[in-house]
Structures are given as structure tokens and as C-alpha cells.
């Protein structure tokens, strides 16, 4: 009888611990930019973000006809940038350069939902003009 009771208690503790781990993973998942109540912002706003990209983006030897590349990244609760990924690349090193520039970004203001700071997934289009 004691063994059965001990087994039931052990199973209960294991299931409770498992549920806690799952909740933590879900709570840490980033919100989409459009879903948060207070959206994260680059220091100085969107115009300053465009200035930052314009100053720091060094166009590689790009042979293409121009277009829009997309970079996705997470703005953490402390405003730092992580998980920078190229969503749409134009080739010739443009995606790698955009990734480098965004990774060097200063801290943003954090996003908030229901009064709590949250991680936010942000997708940024960057237009590249034809070099020809």
C-alpha cells in the first residue's frame, strides 16, 4: 500500500513539474509586433531606425536589380536584439549585411502586454536600390 501511495505521489509531482516547464516555455514565446499593447521602439523612433540602417549598411557588390529584403528578430524584455534571421534575401551578401547591422543595433524600448514586459518578434523590410 505504501508503495502505491508513493508511486501516486511521485507521478503527481512529475506531472506538476512537467506542466510548469511547459508553461514557462509558452510564457517565453515572443509576441508578434501587432499583438502587443505597447510596441517596442528603436531609440528616437522609426526615422532614427532608418537613419541607423542608412549609416551602417554597406552595400556589398550587389549585381541585382534592387528589391526588398526582410530581416526578422526578437526584441527581448531588456531591449536587446536576438535571433536575427534573414527571411528574404536578395543575394550577393545583402542579407548577411542586414543581419550584421541589425545585430549591432542599440537597445530598443521593450514591448508590453497587460502591464508586463514581453519578448516581441519584429520583421523589418529593407529596400535596396539597383546599383546599375
UniProtKB/TrEMBL annotation:
Gene3D superfamilies, per this entry? 3.30.1150.10
Keyword annotations: Signal
- One Pfam family, short name: TonB_C
Start and end residues of each TonB C-terminal domain? 63-126
Question: Which region is the signal sequence?
Answer: 1-19
Q: Which InterPro entries match?
A: TonB_C
Q: Name one GO biological process term.
A: transmembrane transport
Per the record's keyword annotation, is Lipid metabolism included, yes or no?
no
Tagged with keyword Protease? no
Designated name of the protein: TonB C-terminal domain-containing protein
